[in-house]
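CATEGORY: protein folding

GOAL: derive structure tokens
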Amino acid sequence: MVIMSLSACGYITRHIAPHSNGLLHDESAQKTEQDWAKIAWNYFAQNTRAKTGVACVTNNSTMISMWTAADSIAAIITAHQMNVIDTTTLDKRLSDLLSFLATMPLFFGKIPNSLYNAETGEMIDYKQQPNETGCCL
């Protein structure tokens, strides 16, 4: 089995034994993993916009993509599993993000656009300008 842990704005993966709690057995290592998770969660907490529920591509930007939407889903679930966020926060953040995904405008009405504005949910081009037809992945 492989577990993903949050670390900075990426993920650390490692193999764990089935039926374990996913954390290292050494108390100091558990504290280290918890500290990493809290640091990483800060990035997602600070860079998630209310309209879309997705963390931005880079710190303090307004661009999001389907890639960052997937990163955000993984971050929310992992933060909950590592007891960084509570169940109410998990539910709210996943609901916001999934609501955006269910209603977001699509490229020619068929597939996700490459980029979206995190604050408005509008399709944007690579110059971060609104674009009604979008730009395909």
